[in-house]
Amino acid sequence: MRHRSLLVLSIALTGALTLTACGSRGGSSGGSSNASSGVTVTIGVDAPLSGQNSATGLGIEYGVKIAVDDANANHLVPGVTFAIKALDDQAQPATGQQNATALVADSSVLGVVGPLNSGVAQSMQQVFATANLVEISPSNTNPQLTQGPNWASGQKVRGYKTYFRTATTDALQGAFAAQYASGIGKKKAFVVDDKQTYGAGLAGIFKDSFQKDGGSIAGTDHVNTGDKDFSALVTKVKSSGADLLYYGGQYDEASLLTKQLKAAGDNIPLMGGDGIYSTTYISTAGQGSEGDYATAVGVPVDTLATAKDFIAKYKAANYPGDYGDYGGYSYDAATAIIKSVGTVLAANGNKLPSDARSKVVDAVQNVDFNGIAGHVSFDQYGDTTNKQLTVYQVTGGKWVSVKTGTYTG
User: Fold this and answer.
1) pTM of the full structure
2) CA atoms of 385 and 368, how far apart (whole Å)
3) CATH number at residue 65
4) Which keywords has UniProt assigned to this entry (predicted)?
């Protein structure tokens, strides 16, 4: 810490940034520096890299790593080598807050990609805002993170100018899911959530939207993260006469819930948000997942010509995790930070100023480029301007896209 304090003092005196790469869970990025000054800028990553949701979290980490490797190999920002520092939040808000503090304390970190979970993001926002350190989540979808607690009543207030996301919000995702469910003839939904920020918020939006579309709610209930026995809930769902079970939460509980529901003889589909859109959901639920639905942000990355090189590199390196969930959005989030560092450099005689962090925040607000997963730019709240969503269904043991579009309600 003392060494970094001296570096910060040196920055203030010379107007240049000379840093060494920091260690990271994922390791430093590949490529060699073309900078005569040896400048290294670190991009932090926060995600669940072990335990619950780790398949998705690892996809975020390695999406960023490939972006960093590409930036270094292509000399995207002349004079700078980028590295990553990935920290594991285990999907726990308290751990995420600790990680945010650690990333802020590392003076080489000029931007952070993550976290995965909206509840974790809530614990991190103030820490990053106080330090003027930009964070871009590839996956947070709870509307209040950008638009404040009263967003649903139209009183939208941006609480943190340092917070951005490349994923669209649940205000659209939940309504898109409800619209699709109504469109395929579903009339009566039982709605369950995991009491977490993401899950409860998404389930609530689906419930309201489904009713507005003419559907009825057969019942509602809650589970706890980590639950494994859903026999009582299965009985409630079966007796309700619902033709659809909507679940707001992650794949860990959802996969067991749908498996137990089908085993009990109730063959109605489970539908959820991007929290269940994972190959792990299918492998855990097995045949019980067949016919289930999930919505996810954006266009299926496997269908995008712009993402072919990214996917090839991910597979060639045999990286763990699911790149299909948020790997593309993580790549684009990291690229937005990298490009913003370049903008700040160019405006300051190709040197990073002492207030580089705050200037990177301003530059991210104004990014405008075509990423591998879609167009990247942000509105006045820090939300992505890319509003596309996709509905997937488990068919033959795989997630298959059945509809891509935007919410039209």
Assistant:
1) 0.82
2) 10
3) 3.40.50.2300
4) Signal
